[in-house]
């Protein structure tokens, strides 16, 4: 096991955008470890760099300097192609606006990540079914996204994120577009994935009551972390 | 679900748009294939021309005749195996609309020069010995329902007999066929002597001569010698290969090749731009979806291939439909006008060209959308909501 090693080690991570002569530092010298099985809520004011940080963790954006170490290996210096391969094996993404393929059914959307594996059609079907059952939406497998409510779409998106059994789930405001009750359902489900299936989760949210579902809250402000204990 | 499902769903994301693009492509390929078949039919004479066959015409123009005496003089030229001559009769049957392509020829030498024409031995005998004999090509005989033994009149819209009549009576004594179906048999021939002796004017002239050389390598030498022989005479000649002569004949009808190429080119250029632009816009619409695929781990190269495959599918379906409809139409026309258009059909070469064009079309219209899709940056794509 790699339990001794944290899942992620962020080392001196900086991100700077340059627009013309101006350069804006989003964060500078961030250091953080994420342990296996953790559930972290990242909070902070709008524009503080939460999404930017999550993109570094997910390998869809690269830092200006510093290192992102995943299971002891740097990912910040991988090529685009290697990063894509790495993402398909290790990361499940959950977005605020679900980002499902409008032309595909719920089941087909969930199957998408499995097309990148060597699994047979039958095996893929089985896994899709399991994932849909975990998120409680198996009865809507044949529905297109536009035939589903926001909460249902987010369930499908979560099923898509977990179907390939990734090591980390990254969620950017997963309940930002949902009402309180639906948000609580979704958050409860994420919590369950964390406690029962041991999924490591990093979730960005604005909402303090959403953050309570996490084990740990981190506040990102002016490019620095402020850790706060759970307030519940 | 497989990658093929993804490609299909991508292409038919907006069904009406996909269908409209396919219809446009189908129209372009329909035009291409039909005109290609027409062009091929017009050029059939060029293709069946024997390489060692030369044609001597009046240097002014092939419609202007020359003295019969030339025939005798050409026979003496070194390197020639056979010479024959022909006159354009300009015939019709009963009424001018029933055009019958008819030549007045020297019976024996004509068959020597055109060995591809087949006449049963007893009919050949009758042809050589019967002054009023008309031999009719199979296609023409079928068209008018003529058979050996029929006696028919043919009128000329050029020539007149001494008695003022423009009608000649003929006995059909042979029906000729050809070894190869691409050789036309939609015409008729009769004795030059019968023709010449009854003429009211322009006797002892011939329309053109056809000759074969011992070898292709002698073509130029023979042609030069013949033309030199009649240089500075009132009727100078021009001798070319039969293929070149057929080409010249076609060009007389207007530069069909150029016209067809322009029409096809314009159709393709228009549809290429429409489909190309539509595809670029269609992929732009899907920027976020493609970014999602990339986020999930789909490689850029794979995205490129998938989008390019969409445009291949589009081209092949649209082009295939157009080609299929064109083939259907051509077969229909060829069946209805079998005798009038003997070489008409959907040539295999046009089919291959069409497929090559489809591939080219797919590459041109698909490259930029596929390239754009490949270059989509995930973070930027999610940035623009
Ligand atoms: N491509 C870019 N070029 C320049 N600046 C950028 C770019 N992307 C993000 N930024 C800036 O980086 C900062 C952090 O953006 P980010 O999206 O990470 O914020 P956030 O914390 O997720 O905000 P929100 O809560 O509104 O989602 C913002 O000020 C934003 O304007
Ligand atoms: Mg954000």
CATH superfamily of chain A: P-loop containing nucleotide triphosphate hydrolases
Distance between the termini of chain B: 28 Å
Radius of gyration of chain B over all CA atoms, rounded: 29 Å
Bound molecules: adenosine-5'-triphosphate, magnesium ion
Characterize the main sheet of chain B.
Answer: 6 strands, mixed, barrel
Q: How does the overall form of chain B come out from the CA principal axes?
A: elongated
Structural class of chain A: alpha/beta
Query: Helical region count of chain B?
Result: 15
Task: Count up the domains of chain A.
Answer: 1
Amount of beta strand of chain A: 25-35%
Task: Describe the protein's architecture and organization.
The complex is a heterodimer of chains A (232) and B (385). Chain A is built from 7 helices and 10 strands. Chain A is 32% helix and 27% strand. In chain A, helix 4 packs across helix 5. In chain A, strands 6-7-8-3-9-10 form a 6-stranded mixed β-sheet. With 232 residues, chain A is an alpha/beta fold. The model of chain A has no long low-confidence stretch (mean pLDDT 92). In chain A, strand 7, helix 6 (180-197) and strand 8 (200-204) form a beta-alpha-beta unit. Chain A has helices at 50-57, 80-90, 106-111, 121-134, 150-162, 180-197, 208-211, and strands at residues 8-19, 22-34, 39-43, 65-70, 73-74, 91-94, 168-172, 200-204, 216-221, 224-228. Chain A has one domain: Rossmann fold (3-Layer(aba) Sandwich), CATH 3.40.50.300. By secondary structure, chain B is an alpha+beta fold. Chain B folds into 2 domains: 3-45 and 255-383, no CATH class; 65-234, no CATH class. Chain B has helices at 3-11, 15-42, 44-48, 69-74, 107-113, 121-129, 138-144, 192-198, 219-229, 242-252, 256-285, 287-296, 300-336, 348-375, 378-383; strands at residues 53-58, 66-67, 80-88, 91-92, 99-105, 117-118, 133-137, 151-156, 167-178, 187-191, 205-206, 208-213, 237-241. In chain B, strand 4 (91-92) and strand 5 form a beta hairpin. In chain B, helix 1 packs across helix 13, helix 2 packs antiparallel against helix 14 (348-375) and helix 11 packs parallel to helix 14 (348-375). Chain B starts with a helix and ends with a helix. The model of chain B has no long low-confidence stretch (mean pLDDT 89). Chains A and B meet through helix 2 of A and helix 1, helix 12 and helix 15 of B. The site of magnesium ion has 3 residues of chain A, from helix 1. Magnesium ion (MG) binds at residues 50-51, 172 of chain A.
């Amino acid at each position: 096991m790699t339990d001794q090693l944290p899942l992620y080690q962020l080392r001196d991570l900086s991100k700077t955008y340059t627009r013309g002569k101006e350069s804006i530092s989003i964060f500078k010298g961030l250091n953080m470890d994420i342990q296996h099985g953790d559930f972290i809520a990242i909070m902070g004011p709008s524009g503080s760099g939460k999404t930017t940080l999550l993109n570094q963790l997910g390998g869809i954006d690269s830092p200006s300097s510093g290192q992102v170490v995943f299971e002891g290996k740097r990912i910040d210096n991988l090529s685009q192609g290697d990063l894509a391969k790495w993402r398909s094996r290790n990361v499940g993404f959950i977005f605020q606006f679900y980002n499902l393929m409008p032309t595909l059914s719920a089941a087909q959307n969930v199957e998408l990540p499995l097309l990148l594996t060597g699994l047979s059609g039958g095996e893929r079907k089985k896994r899709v079914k399991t994932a849909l059952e975990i998120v409680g939406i198996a009865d809507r497998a044949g529905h297109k996204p536009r035939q589903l409510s926001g909460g249902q779409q987010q369930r499908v998106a979560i099923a898509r994120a977990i179907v390939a059994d990734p090591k980390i789930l990254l969620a950017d405001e997963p309940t930002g577009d949902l009402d309180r009750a639906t948000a609580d359902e979704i958050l409860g489900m994420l919590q369950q994935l964390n406690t029962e299936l041991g999924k490591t989760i990093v979730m960005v949210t604005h909402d303090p009551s959403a953050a309570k579902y996490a084990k740990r809250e981190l506040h990102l402000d002016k490019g620095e972390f402020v850790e706060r204990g759970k307030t519940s | 679900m497989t990658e093929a499902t993804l490609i299909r769903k991508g292409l038919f994301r907006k069904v009406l748009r996909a269908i409209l693009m396919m219809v446009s492509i189908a129209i372009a390929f329909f035009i291409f294939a039909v005109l290609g078949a027409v062009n091929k039919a017009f050029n059939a004479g060029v293709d069946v021309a024997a390489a060692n066959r030369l044609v001597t015409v009046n240097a002014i123009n092939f419609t202007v005749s020359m003295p019969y005496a030339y025939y005798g003089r050409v026979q003496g030229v070194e390197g020639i195996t056979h010479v024959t001559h022909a006159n354009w009769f300009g015939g019709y049957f009963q009424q001018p609309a029933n055009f019958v392509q008819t030549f007045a020829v020297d019976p024996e030498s004509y068959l020597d020069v055109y060995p591809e024409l087949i006449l049963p031995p007893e009919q050949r005998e009758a042809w050589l010995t019967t002054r009023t004999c008309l031999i009719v090509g199979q296609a023409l005989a079928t068209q008018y329902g003529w058979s050996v033994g029929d006696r028919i009149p043919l009128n000329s819209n050029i020539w007149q007999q001494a008695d003022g009549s423009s009608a000649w009576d003929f006995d059909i004594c042979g029906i000729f066929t050809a070894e190869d179906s691409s050789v036309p048999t939609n015409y008729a021939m009769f004795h030059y002597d019968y023709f010449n002796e009854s003429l009211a004017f322009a006797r002892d002239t011939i329309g053109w001569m056809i000759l074969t050389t011992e070898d292709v390598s002698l073509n130029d030498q023979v042609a030069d010698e013949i033309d030199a022989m009649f240089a500075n005479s009132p009727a100078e000649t021009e001798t070319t290969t039969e293929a070149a002569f057929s080409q010249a004949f076609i060009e007389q009808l207007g530069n069909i090749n150029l016209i067809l190429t322009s029409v096809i080119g314009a159709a393709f250029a228009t549809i290429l731009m429409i489909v190309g632009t539509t595809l670029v816009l269609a992929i732009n619409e899907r920027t976020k979806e493609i970014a999602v695929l990339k986020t999930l781990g789909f490689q850029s190269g794979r995205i490129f291939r998938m989008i390019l495959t969409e445009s291949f599918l589009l081209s092949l379906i649209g082009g295939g439909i157009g080609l299929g409809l064109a083939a259907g139409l051509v077969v229909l026309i060829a069946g209805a006008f079998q005798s009038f258009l003997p070489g008409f059909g959907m040539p295999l070469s046009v089919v291959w060209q069409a497929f090559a064009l489809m591939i080219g079309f797919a590459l041109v219209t698909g490259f930029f959308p596929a390239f754009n899709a490949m270059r989509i940056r995930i973070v930027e794509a999610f940035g623009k909501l």
